[in-house]
Amino acid sequence: MAEILSQEEIDALLSAVSYGEEVEVETESAKTEKLINTYDFRHPARVSKDQLRTLQNLHDNFARLLSSTFSTLQRSIIEINLVSVDQITYSEFIMSLSSPSCTYTFRLEPLEGVAILDFSQSVVFSFVDRLFGGRGTSIVTEREITWIEKSVMNNIINRSLRDLERTWERIIPLECNVEMLETNPEFVQVVPASETVVLISFELKSENVNGLINLCYPYISIEPIAVRLGGQNLVSSAKEVPKEELLKNRRRIELFNTLIRAHLGFADITVGELVNMKNGDVVTLDTRISDNIEIYVGNEIKFYGKMGYVGKYKGVEILSRVLTEEMED
Fold this sequence. Notes:
By secondary structure, this protein is an alpha+beta fold.
């Protein structure tokens, strides 16, 4: 359809013809700017930002559960932090894994598809070393894990999947069952290479090792519950901890050993007296027999007590607890 010129445009055109000038006529179509949004067909955004935030919130809780579980297994402090939540292609995920690897595939029933949980080599050998009596130090080596080491990791993956079930229970009840363990990532083909997956990465930190744990969900597994992952169903990680959870954490803490020591008193002596000290010498302390002695848990004073005997052994009777105000002073 031809465009109709305004009276001002007609006058300007006639004036230009009269004086032999060129005039640019700005039409309505020229004024209209077309907004073009780029779209990457190799990386389609099939999971919305709200859904990614919900997944991030859920797996923040999963990281805390893993920290508690792994600390109990290793009898040491294990810290696990959520590093990232991204949607990438399956081929990019496989290429990011080291070889050999410790990669478990598992089903998320009743959802479709197979998910992946991958432990880095440093994390694997740290668990093996700790559970066989070591300090949890990782061996820097590139080799496949042995059958004995696989049996150790089978216990780790089962405990991890139980925590994952608890993570998802506010969205949907899941039953996670291990399918297989693979040490070569190229043989792990759960979806086509171009399929979108959600990759959730965690960092494990302890006194002796740092390493990564990767959790991969195919989009076909998340798609049936995508509506539940919207902003209105966002699960708050700051909600009050249930009493059942507190009781479970208390039982885990009760398994840890701690050092308790009783201080009878202190004495100042010279180096010469120390060098000449022999059996039978008496050292005078700064406390009386009637004074209460201080009882320490770790490096903090917690109780007051009295020395005595328990059968044929020496012992300490706890008389009172140290108040919080006294500890702060």
